[in-house]
Amino acid sequence: MAVDALGKGLLLKADQIADTFRDEVKSSLAQCSRPPTLVGILGSTSAPSKFYADFTRKQCEQLGVRFVLKKVGSAQSSDLADGEGVEEAIVEANEDPDVDGIMVYYPIYGGQQDHYLQQIVSPLKDVEGLHSKFHYNLYHNIRFIDPKSLAPATPAPVDDVAPPGTVKSILPCTPLGVVKCLEYIGVYNKILPYGDRAYGKTVAVINRSEVVGRPLAALLANDGARVFSVDIDSIQEYTKRPRSSPEAGRKYLPHHTAHPCNLTLQECLALSDVVISAVPSAEYKVKTKYLKEGCVTVNVAADKNFEKDVRDKASIHIPAVGKVTILMLLRNLCVPYLLLSHDLMLSWIETAASGIQRNRQHQKLVDLISERA
């Protein structure tokens, strides 16, 4: 954490935030009967994707997680197209009982085709939290699930402890990493009840992608914040507080709702205690002059989305969150139902294999797991 002698805001790098979760991950890994295996699937020549894959490998090696990078498509050979073989690699990892977690380095195709690939990853091995089952839980503020059925559990827990028979629902690792950064610097008020600790804060999230921006805005709103979700063509307001009945006081809905917002970006920034930008463009910059004095700024994009003088206005600026994101991914890897019992894995494989013309491969896999049980 760097303090500028000229009175600028703090420059807070992600390293020390990540360190607070490193021991937690190590403790979880120590309870595993074997080192978990994470498979990364790289299907393009994108420089940020290759960097992220290498960064994942280094973090896994440091913590004792077995990491296997599967290169397919253009990442494997210049003769192949982007994304070629990704779907097959996902299916193979789904069916491999020695694989505990899967992550795919996006974007590959972009848009709906990437979304389709995200749904192919088994929710039992999805450490990125991108499967629709987890997105449903995120947007409906369902925080715990039954690990055997992946069915929704009680939607309104009183604290951060999983009710008996449930585990934490997987959350997308980048949005979760941002939330942990905000918790670390005190944006979340620990005195307030669990699930409402961002109450009283106004946050602007720039970019409404399904991978980072929208789930992040939903997470913050579900924790009580008033959130401006900013995208190219519109601004929406996310809140779980009823707008129609002022007499309701501090009562709130089970999960956030989205409303059209008539404010401009400049007006949103002037109101925001926290500004988070995740725009994948080196040209895009949040103008410092529009920021609220003393706000917190967080850069999530691979490019620098804030101007060089951002700390003239911001009290704290976090320039990158990648190191925290990786720890959240490995934290997700340690969720109990990702390190599946043989009985549960057998049940899942038998269900998944029904109707698929892979009888021989399926039987070999079932026999293999039966021998190990």
What characteristics describe this protein?
373 residues, alpha/beta, 35% helix
In order across it, which strands form the biggest sheet? Answer: 1-13-12-11-7-8-9-10
Q: What overall form do the CA principal axes indicate? A: globular
- Uncertain stretches of 5 or more adjacent residues: 353-360
Into which percentage range does the β-strand content fall?
5-15%
Helix content: 25-40%
**Through-space gap between termini:** 49 Å
Q: Give the tally of β-strands.
A: 13
Q: Which sheet architecture does the biggest sheet show?
A: 8 strands, mixed
Global mean pLDDT: 84
Query: Given the structure, what is the number of helices?
Result: 11
Walk me through the structure.
With 373 residues, the protein is α/β, with parallel strands linked by helices. Helix 1 runs parallel beside helix 9, helix 6 packs across helix 7 and helix 6 packs across helix 9. About 2% of the residues have low confidence. The protein is 35% helix and 14% strand. An eight-stranded mixed β-sheet has the order 1-13-12-11-7-8-9-10, sandwiched between helices.
